[in-house]
């Protein structure tokens, strides 16, 4: 994360504070993000049938305001999920209090929460902090916000990019938090994107969807989809560019920049997955269709046995081949080649000579620069390809999750 | 497992020996199972698209012999999977050698393997042992066989039952091995069933399928379906009962006995799952349809977060509710109740008062008798129900699988 190179989009202000919501330790756990002018918002929410109160309230506000918002209130430490009517009330109260303070309609305030499920959220803890947050709002406040939203994450995730569009400089800033219940069926965590670009409303939502499809929908830590997943993309138009729409050369440039920022954050989420020591990029090539390539990549990324082999630095290609076989895709195993970090470990569905000890040493490397693993599968069926990112499955993952609440 | 009460079906003989196939340690790893007369065989094989050589060869033999067999050759230590043509040859050679020894056609010999994937299997190691095995064949040899087929299992799994049918005593004996790559899409491991009952051929196969649906297809250790899964059910008719068919009162009695034996083995597999310390029975009640009940039970059983909470003895009902929400089934969370060992931990989709410390102590109990956990979910939608068995997800699971081959 090259934070020092980030340009903050114009017209956005940020502040974080401490509301005492964390059950473990202390630290910032509440944040306010504001656009100085009404901004168009694209939003994607969890596909889990159990949706947390802030998801339901944000969906409601987003519709009622016709996808216009000026503020986001977010908290960590308490997911405000499975909290019944009191939970809905708490989410509404947070939005309302922020709206009053900022003099914007309640419907133009979105909310998001992350943390423990099933514990009542006392909205007063949040609303009591809001005045101080409002006073401290600042363009550089995003760094504090990126820390306040973390739960089991070990580090903040921020990414950004700027590019010229229509003679104006346009900036994109994104931040996200993981690190468990990470599995993509829609966005899978909290992620907030801000741009000062002017963007046509319909195009903004499809841009957000495309951005998620190539980033957050291609990662997994544990295969569990959370109840609170939320992605907001706010575009306030302060940059003054001609509005970006579906037509026009600028669209593709803008989409690419968005994708780049989102992908950087998505990969950072996996790298910081609960207990993760290694990041694995899975590339499936030569599949019969994009859909099949995707299914195969997912099956490998979700296999507990592949993920524990990654933890052990074990070039166990048999488990990879078995995971390919579990993808629900018909194929001829005798055409499959598998590569780990460029070394061919499986040729035409069978064993091949390679220096196993050397590869194992390489896969076990603890050196931060060398710890990423590239897992490539050639299907020998066609020309379709897919990428997916996963992490290794370590004892530390179990330790974290066997004692999360206690 | 009440081994001492087992009655061995008449006309079946067993023997185990050591072929030196295990990469770790030593011990029996090859076995021969024989019916003294040609037996009808029901068979179910893995749904993994990568099928091991013994699966392919057994499928071939089973078809060619019109589902009649007299012997099974099984080995542990080497799965003979992803071993190309040499692997197919090795599986064929084992069957052929056993056929010659026993004076039965090659097609009437079935084979099964379990162990490491992708390592060439030297058939001579098996065929060299077969003469000694043939000499040692004995009805009580099943115990030695149940040990020879184990891999990461910590104990053998045998179950049996006898019942009167048509004035004759009929016996059922089953044995199975786990303990990783256990996830049911069809049977998910090796399991062998023997009965001296006379059973009509078509009915036998549907009985085997029903038996698997209520046992091996309702368990998960790690959500990975193996390349070698095989279930054989041999019926040799030596008991002399009137053949059991679809019609008739005896059918249901026989099916129930089969189900009971299979379910006992299936639960034993989960209990001995890799790294498992606790068995959890998941009961979903009040679902809108059997299919939905099943999907919900599976989603809970496969959730890494639920399984790690079980490991920690954490009554974390929020993760259970979230897993229900990920089942792809529409429902109203406000109607859901969740019980752990009889204690209601979630009422109408929200928190409820209970003695959390006491329940946690109970869930953490190491006492063998008390370590089973009953996880009940009431959906409040209809009357359909489903059961599923899973185990906790422990650091030991990761340790076992991060270093399986090394």
Question: What does this 3D model show about the protein?
Answer:
Two copies of one chain form a homodimer. By secondary structure, chain A is of the alpha/beta class. Chain A has two domains: 3-271, L-amino peptidase D-ALA esterase/amidase; 279-401, ArgJ beta chain, C-terminal domain (Ubiquitin-like (UB roll), Roll). Helix content of chain A is 33%, strand content 24%. Chain A contains twelve helices and 14 strands. Chain A has helices spanning 53-64, 84-102, 123-127, 130-136, 142-148, 201-213, 249-271, 290-302, 304-312, 317-325, 356-364, 395-401; strands spanning 12-17, 30-45, 68-75, 109-113, 157-165, 168-177, 190-195, 219-220, 230-235, 279-287, 337-340, 343-346, 373-378, 384-391. In chain A, strands 1, 2, 3, 4, 5, 6, 7 and 9 form an eight-stranded mixed sheet that branches. A six-stranded mixed sheet of chain A has the order 8-14-10-13-11-12, sandwiched between helices. Chain A is globular.
Number of strands of chain A: 14
State the CATH architecture of the largest domain in chain A: 4-Layer Sandwich
Quaternary organization? homodimer
Protein chains sharing the most extensive interface: A-B, 66 and 65 residues
- C-alpha Rg of chain A, in Å? 22 Å
Q: CATH class of the largest domain in chain A, anyone?
A: Alpha Beta
**Residue runs with pLDDT of under 50 for 5 or more positions of chain A:** 183-188
Task: For the record, give the distance between the C-alpha atoms at the N and C termini of chain A, rounded to a whole number.
Answer: 32 Å
The 3D shape of chain A can be described as globular
Q: Do you know the CATH topology of the largest domain in chain A?
A: L-amino peptidase D-ALA esterase/amidase
* Structural domains of chain A: how many: 2
Write the H/E string of chain A, N to C.
EEHEHEHHHEEEHEEHEHHHEEHEEH
Number of helices of chain A: 12
Q: Estimate the strand proportion of chain A.
A: 15-25%
Mean pLDDT of chain A: 88
| Structural class by SSE content of chain A | alpha/beta
Largest sheet descriptor of chain A: 8 strands, mixed
Share of helix of chain A, binned: 25-40%
